[in-house]
């Protein structure tokens, strides 16, 4: 099973990490998949083994991992 979230953007399949925030965006890079006015035309199911290809999602993930936060860092 793939962890990737598929979003059609300008007629092309794109693959993202799932959202981890408190918003209603579908992806880690804050995409609303149902916004045809800017070319975002819905979810698509990832094929088995699909990898995340979005560089924005990768950058966010890389930067969070680099913080090396622990549960004790939070109040
Ligand atoms: Zn993304």
Short description:
By secondary structure, the chain is α+β, with helices and mostly antiparallel strands. 16% of the residues lie in helices and 23% in strands. The protein has one domain.
Explain what the structure shows:
The protein is an alpha+beta fold and 75 residues long. The chain has one domain. It is 16% helix and 23% strand. The protein contains one helix and four strands. A four-stranded antiparallel beta sheet has the order 2-1-4-3, with no helix packed on it. Strand 1 and strand 2 form a beta hairpin. The longest helix is centred in the last third of the chain and has 12 residues. The mean pLDDT is 95. The protein binds zinc ion.
User: How many domains comprise the coordinates?
Assistant: 1
Give start-end ranges of low-pLDDT stretches.
none
Shape descriptor: globular
Major sheet: order of its strands?
Answer: 2-1-4-3
Helix content: 10-25%
Computed Rg: 14 Å
Q: How far is the first residue's CA from the last residue's CA?
A: 35 Å
How do the strands and helices of this protein lay out in sequence?
Blueprint: E1 5-9, E2 12-16, E3 34-35, E4 40-44, H1 55-66
Antiparallel strand pairs: 1-2, 1-4, 3-4
The protein binds zinc ion (ZN).
Zinc ion binds next to α1.
Give the key terms.
75 residues; alpha+beta; 4-stranded antiparallel β-sheet; 16% helix; 23% strand; binds zinc ion
């Amino acid at each position: 099973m793939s962890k990737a979230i598929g979003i059609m953007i300008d007629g092309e399949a794109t693959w993202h990490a799932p959202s981890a925030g408190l918003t209603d965006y579908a992806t880690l890079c804050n995409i609303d998949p149902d916004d045809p006015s800017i070319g975002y035309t819905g979810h698509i199911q990832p094929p088995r083994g699909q990898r995340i290809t979005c560089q924005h999602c990768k950058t966010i993930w890389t930067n969070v991992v680099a913080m090396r936060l622990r549960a004790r860092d939070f109040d």
